[in-house]
Specification:
Helix content is 55%, strand content 3%. By secondary structure, the chain is mainly alpha-helical. The chain binds a DNA duplex (17 and 17 nucleotides) through α13.
Length: 335
DNA sequence: AATGGTATTTTGCCTGA
DNA sequence: TCAGGCGAAATACCATT
């Protein structure tokens, strides 16, 4: 056990070293370019494409202490953001309690012995409360992903609450911890109207989009979170800053979206696409030359979709508000 | 060079066996 | 749980300004 603790110390040192030199194997998730760390701004940005990967680099620490009280568990360093130690899915593995293999056949005596040893360890984990460990790993993941995406701490805590509810309601069995953790974070992001998209989540999550969206829909329904589809306006500020557009354009785009929503042009359509189209349309209105392709690159929406949506937006605008006033009073008679 | 339009393929969601 | 229908979006390609 002494060897273990020295190992621990070494790990700690190397981790601290990496933090000061800003970066392990960091590669830009967008373009694959090299990442540089700006300590004064606390940002990790891609030198090639300018993508901000991590805006608050200092808060790599575990946040899950707010959720459980067992101090001894802190020493176990479970769920800490030093994720390379946990890249295997070992922690989500469970040992069955029957002496059967996956096909239901009985095990040989030597295998039974092996399983007994494993159960001994499993028992130790269990006495430390299985679900606490589950929770801790999930919260560590939520925090890791959240900080990589620049999600504020308050929203990350909301995500933790969502996850804990899912755990309490027994929604976990049959689902991966990672998937539900990602789903919880996304639910919190949606609930607080933050601009992170599903695509953003997939970049930092270890589960694929299908698994995570499935888990998201499931917990959304089962927990009655009643989170509707994203509001296109949520994405505006993010895209506007990415495109270096003016505040005036942002306001026009917002107006267009509000008008569009009133005219119901957004039902069943991609909110991201609508936001992209609103920016393009607003660019025309305020004479800022933003090409469809530029916006397409920044928003991951095709130019075709931008065309279709912005046309609908302008039609709705013409129908409803022929006067070019930015009147907020949107009382209207539909059709 | 950018936009507008169209045909085709891909993709995800829903529904019904 | 799965296949298939369906609409939206992407992709490819061409026309227009």
């Amino acid at each position: 056990m002494t060897t273990l603790s020295t190992h621990d110390a070494e790990e700690r040192e190397s981790t601290a070293d990496e933090e000061t030199t800003a970066g392990e194997d960091h590669v830009c998730p967008d373009c694959g370019g090299h990442l540089t760390h700006d300590a004064s701004r606390g940002e990790t940005v891609c030198a090639d494409c300018g993508l901000v990967v991590d805006e608050n680099a200092i808060d790599r620490g575990p946040e899950w202490r707010a959720f459980d009280s067992a101090e001894r568990d802190e020493k176990s360093r479970v769920g800490a953001p030093t994720t390379k130690l946990m890249h295997d899915e070992g922690l989500s593995t469970n040992i069955g309690w029957q002496n059967k293999d996956a096909n239901g056949n009985s095990l040989s005596s030597s295998q039974r012995e092996k399983m007994q040893r494993l159960r001994t360890w499993n028992e130790r984990f269990r006495t430390r409360d299985h679900s606490e460990r589950n929770l801790k790993q999930a919260l560590g993941e939520i925090d890791r992903m959240g900080s990589a995406l620049g999600v504020p701490k308050s929203a990350r805590e909301t995500a933790g609450v969502v996850y804990r509810r899912a755990l309490d309601e027994g929604l976990l069995p049959g689902r991966s911890i990672e998937g539900v953790a990602t789903a919880s974070l996304y639910a919190a992001v949606r609930q607080t109207n933050l601009p992170q998209t599903i695509d953003d989540m997939v970049v930092v999550s270890r589960v694929d989009e299908q698994e995570f969206t499935r888990a998201y829909r499931y917990i959304n329904r089962e927990l009655s979170l009643e989170i509707g589809p994203p509001d296109p306006a949520d994405y505006l500020s993010k895209f506007v800053s990415e495109l270096d557009a003016s505040d005036e354009l942002a306001m026009r785009a917002h107006d267009l979206i509000e008008n569009g929503k009133a005219a119901n042009v957004h039902s069943g359509k991609s909110p991201v696409g609508l936001a992209a189209a609103a920016i393009y349309a607003a660019g025309l209105l305020v004479n800022e030359e933003l090409t469809q392709e530029t916006i397409s690159d920044a928003t991951d929406v095709s130019t075709v979709t931008i065309r279709d949506r912005y046309r609908e937006l302008l039609e709705a605008e013409a129908d409803r508000d022929p006067v070019e006033a930015s009147a907020a009073g949107g009382s209207n008679a539909s059709a």
